[in-house]
Design brief:
Layout (H helix, E strand, L loop, with lengths): L3 H5 L4 E3 L11 E4 L4 E6 L4 E5 L10 E5 L2 E5 L10 E4 L4 E3 L11 E5 L2 E5 L10 E4 L4 E4 L10 E5 L2 E5 L15 E4 L4 E4 L10 E4 L4 E5 L2 E5 L4 E3 L11 E5 L2 E6 L2 E5 L4 E4 L6 E2 L2 E4 L3 E5 L2 E2 L11 E5 L4 E6 L2
Parallel strand pairs: 1-2
Antiparallel strand pairs: 2-3, 3-30, 4-29, 5-6, 6-7, 7-8, 9-10, 10-11, 11-12, 13-14, 14-15, 15-16, 17-18, 18-19, 19-20, 21-22, 22-23, 23-24, 25-28, 26-27, 27-29
Length: 316
């Protein structure tokens, strides 16, 4: 019988626990689990998943690929509808307290946050989600729609946005941080902007407006590496050093310095919700961009990057 050593010329390493940072192609035997394991290589891609029950154009989405929430948005008309995703199917949940669109979401599927929006007209409302119910939180200091939102329910950040009458209709530069109870004004963006996406935490995040990138350290905004394509009004997730954005069909990852183009989405949309990580992301709904037919969508796609997947093989 052929052995691995006879074929490859070396043994598979035996370890009691998986390596903390395996590289693509690495193989090992986990003696605790009794399994041969390997780090799989390959290109990431988007795959079509089950449609949502409701359209959520420019709604608030948060969580992970296997535990997500999408709430509010435009059907049309505007909706307070809320749904949860378990990695396979969407299930109707309890509605938000207020009907709003042009909002973003932050946090987890059991501790979520939304703020601002249009109902129509700019709103200052914020709401918290506990995995079942929505509860009113304290309002933003500045009412706005199309604001960037990031962080967690107890450490959130809202930035930019739009309300009718802002000078030159350029939007807001105000930034506010949330501590789980109240919103506090902090350092403004360098310029007014709305429709920007944000990913990361309250103290280490990235804001993208068109191709312009700003880093936030919890106090100050500094210029980052420009995106090669416009990413306004798209989806985003991840961290400051492992970020993920998509708009229309364009998909880009960010390492804190440089952007890398990835495989396109299957449908071209904007104003869509997104959540997850650079290795396991999710997007849903949005407005179709040609050649996708116009109108709000129910479509869902999952992103998986095999470069960062560990697979197991039974030894029996």
């Amino acid at each position: 019988m052929a052995t691995y050593r006879g074929i490859k010329g070396f043994y598979i390493q035996t370890v009691s626990s998986d390596p903390s940072d395996p590289v693509a192609g690495q193989i090992w035997y986990n003696s605790t689990l009794g399994k041969v394991k390997a780090r799989k290589s390959g290109a990431g891609s988007w795959a079509t998943a089950n449609d949502s029950n409701q359209k959520h154009g420019f709604g608030a989405m948060f969580g992970t690929q296997t535990a997500a929430v999408h709430a509010g948005g435009t059907v049309p008309p505007q909706t307070s509808d809320s749904e949860t995703y378990d990695g396979t199917s969407w299930t109707e949940g309890n509605n938000m307290q207020t009907t709003r669109s042009a909002i973003r979401g932050a946090g987890t599927a059991t501790a979520g946050l939304t703020a601002g929006g249009s109902a129509p007209g700019a709103r200052a409302d914020s709401e918290e989600y506990d995995g079942t119910n929505w509860a009113e939180g304290n309002n933003l200091n500045t009412a706005r729609s199309q604001a960037g939102l990031g962080g967690l329910q107890t450490a959130g950040i809202a930035l930019g946005g739009y309300s009718p009458g802002t000078p030159g209709d350029a939007g807001h530069a105000e930034v506010e941080e949330y501590d789980g109870t109240s919103w506090t004004e902090v350092t403004n963006l360098p310029s007014q902007r709305y429709g920007a996406v944000y990913f990361g935490t309250q103290t280490a995040g990235v804001q993208v407006k068109s191709q312009d990138v700003l880093h936030y350290d919890g106090t100050n905004w500094t210029e980052g590496g420009d995106a090669p394509v416009a990413l306004t009004m798209g989806g985003s997730c991840g961290t400051q050093t492992a970020g993920f954005c998509w708009y229309s069909a364009n998909t880009m990852t960010y390492d804190g310095t440089s952007w890398t183009e990835q495989s396109d989405t299957n449908v071209r949309v904007q104003e869509n919700g997104g959540c997850g990580t650079t290795t396991a992301a999710l997007h849903n709904s949005g407005e179709g961009i040609s050649p996708t037919p116009p109108g709000k969508k129910l479509s869902t796609e999952e992103w998986n990057d095999p470069f960062n997947q560990t697979v197991s093989f039974d030894t029996t």
